[in-house]
Design brief:
single chain, 192 residues, alpha/beta, Rossmann fold, six-stranded parallel sheet, 6 strands, 19% strand
Length: 192
């Protein structure tokens, strides 16, 4: 089994990251949307900060980098594909982090916001498991955050890629948790 370590986040110093739940990824996002909505609702009741990332490019020739070379097709800022899925409905106090690379930390103020809020533990959800979610988790780990990666609130293009990332992350970077177990744990903790 890939889940080699177990721990729970300290709700007082935890933030939830919802990565790239945008219309561009609708086919991947819809199967996990219910789990993410359950986690965001619970985190809101517990006072856990929530950050939504939104991947996009204003001018792929200038801000596309290797992603443009690798994929060719990029998400354009302002397009319908770029928009977050409406059901997520970020609150005015929640962060929207615009990014143009796999990592939510690359050339953004996410790390500063998290540190200013006293965050030490990150719950990671969203798409794609093996690209933006995994890269963000690894980047967070080397910045000394504890990572809680939600196995059924992340998704990829296929199950093989999803499982490969879960195995790699469990081995060296993150605690693997399910939505049900994490929600059960959070419900039993005191609100911050």
């Amino acid at each position: 089994m890939y889940n080699v370590r177990q721990a729970w986040p300290n709700v007082e110093v935890t933030a939830l990251l919802v990565i790239d739940m945008q219309h561009y990824f609708d086919a991947l996002a819809q199967p996990i949307l219910g789990n993410i909505l359950s986690l965001t609702a619970l985190c809101r009741t517990k006072g856990v900060p929530i950050a939504f990332t939104r991947h996009g490019h204003r001018d792929p020739t200038h801000d596309g980098g290797m992603l443009r070379t690798w994929w060719g097709d990029l998400i354009h800022v302002g397009s319908r594909d770029w928009a977050l899925i409406e059901k997520l409905a970020p609150k005015p106090t929640e962060w929207i982090i615009d990014k143009n690379r796999y990592s939510a930390f690359y050339d953004t103020d996410l790390d500063t916001r998290l540190r200013d809020a006293g965050v030490k533990d990150l719950i990671i959800t969203g798409v794609m498991t093996n690209c933006c979610c995994e890269t963000t988790a690894r980047d967070a780990f080397v910045r000394d955050y504890r990572i809680f990666f939600v196995t059924d609130a992340t998704a990829s293009a296929n199950e093989e890629l999803h499982l490969a990332s879960l195995k790699n992350l469990a081995y060296g970077f993150a605690y693997m948790v399910s939505t049900q177990d994490l929600c059960g744990y959070l419900k039993g903790t005191k609100a911050g």
